[in-house]
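Sequence design from tokenized structure. All designs in this work follow the same two-part layout: the structure record, then the generated sequence. An example of the structure record is given first.
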């Protein structure tokens, strides 16, 4: 199966819920199936007792499995709590203890609670979809092999509330896994125009030498189907990568402003920043930081005092309208800061002609309407005052129905 890359979802580790150490687990798991369970406790008593204490609930399941059932560990590989947190369970590489006849070839996921009684929430469903997508991608499991416990055993598990949604959950997982084509907009600083390509996630970014930065790496965890950057930023990356002489892990690059994750006028939203080197030793990381600074190709390399476990590099446009922020843009401007502007305006409902990085009449009208609504100087020019108000309103607020997302 050819699946689109999926990030590992955030989860609470075994130490995070104070798991006891396994006692003599053995065997192996070929991971061909994924079986969804619920804890199914009578009258939902455990879920009522623990409330939102998902860690305590997971710990109690392990105690029952190890002390009463005399198993080597908690039977499930993962839990999903009542709030929607994902919790790490039994090691994926040993024999499971959750479905007779499938413990040697299936991953077990237990949703806390009795779903013949309680409702399966959207937060829980979203976490389950993210976890399933990551597992299917990582272990090349067919979405048709996502099963409810009742599909393989005589049981009501995982409860009607979950089982009734399994078909749509499989569809959502398959949609996430389907190979994507990303619209990549690169501003050519030599010609003053954007160049647009529709590229697969495993394709190298335009202008990258020797495939050292793929679309997948640049896009990272962003949910966007359109990304943007500058040619000169990619060229600066080429220089750094050549000087370093070996691979550089890139976990964080692009984000849409409404997705958040960074500061208010952060260069990641403008597509001209990368955070890298998290997997390096402290010594290697400082060598990479020193190299990036000495090459002189980046506008900013963050010092270790504020970026102790990563190396931040960016090629921000100058001069900034606000300290360390975006440049002033107006009708006729064309660059990735205009992309950020249009994205923010669209998210707030001030649509002005789409999302193309070109500041035209439609964008100016949207800017004026925004300025008027927030008692700013109505001049259609986006300087420090307008950038500050706009980015503080939009940063990290999440996608809204008015967001343009080609």
């Amino acid at each position: 199966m050819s699946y689109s890359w999926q990030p590992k979802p955030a989860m609470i580790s075994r130490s995070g819920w104070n798991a006891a150490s396994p006692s003599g687990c053995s065997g192996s798991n070929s991971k061909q199936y994924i079986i969804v369970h619920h804890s199914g406790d009578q009258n939902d008593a455990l879920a009522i007792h623990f409330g939102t204490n998902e860690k305590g609930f997971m710990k109690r399941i392990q105690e029952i499995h190890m002390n009463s059932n005399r198993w080597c560990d908690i039977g499930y590989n993962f839990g999903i709590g009542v709030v929607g947190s994902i919790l790490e369970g039994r090691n994926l590489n040993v024999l499971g203890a959750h479905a007779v006849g499938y413990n040697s070839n299936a991953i077990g996921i237990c949703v806390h609670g009795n779903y013949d009684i309680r409702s399966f929430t959207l937060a829980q469903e979203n976490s389950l979809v993210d976890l399933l997508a990551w597992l299917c991608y990582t272990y090349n499991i067919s979405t048709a092999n996502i099963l409810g416990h009742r599909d393989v055993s005589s049981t009501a598990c995982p409860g009607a509330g979950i089982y009734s949604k399994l078909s749509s959950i499989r569809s959502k997982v398959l949609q996430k896994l389907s190979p994507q084509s990303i619209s990549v907009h690169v501003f050519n600083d030599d010609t003053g125009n954007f160049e647009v390509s529709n590229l697969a996630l495993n394709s190298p970014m335009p202008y990258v030498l020797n495939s050292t930065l793929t679309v997948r790496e640049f896009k990272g965890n962003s949910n966007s189907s359109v990304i943007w950057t500058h040619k000169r930023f990619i060229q600066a990356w080429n220089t750094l990568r050549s000087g370093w002489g070996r691979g550089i892990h890139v976990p964080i690059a692009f984000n849409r402003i409404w997705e958040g994750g960074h500061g208010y006028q952060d260069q990641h939203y403008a597509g001209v920043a990368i955070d890298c080197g998290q997997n390096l030793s402290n010594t290697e990381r400082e060598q990479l930081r020193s190299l990036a600074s000495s090459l002189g190709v980046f506008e900013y390399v963050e010092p270790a005092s504020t970026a102790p476990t990563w190396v931040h590099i960016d090629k921000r446009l100058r001069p900034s309208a606000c300290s360390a922020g975006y440049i002033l843009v107006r009708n006729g401007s064309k660059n990735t800061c205009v992309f950020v502007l249009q994205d923010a305006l669209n998210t707030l409902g001030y649509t002005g002609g789409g999302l193309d990085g070109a500041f035209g009449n439609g964008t100016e009208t949207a800017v004026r309407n925004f300025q008027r609504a927030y008692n700013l100087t109505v001049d259609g020019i986006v300087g420090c005052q307008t950038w500050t108000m706009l980015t503080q309103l939009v940063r990290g607020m999440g996608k809204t129905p008015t967001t343009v997302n080609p």
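Confidence is low (pLDDT under 50) at residues 399-406. We note this feature because it recurs in several other targets discussed in the main text.
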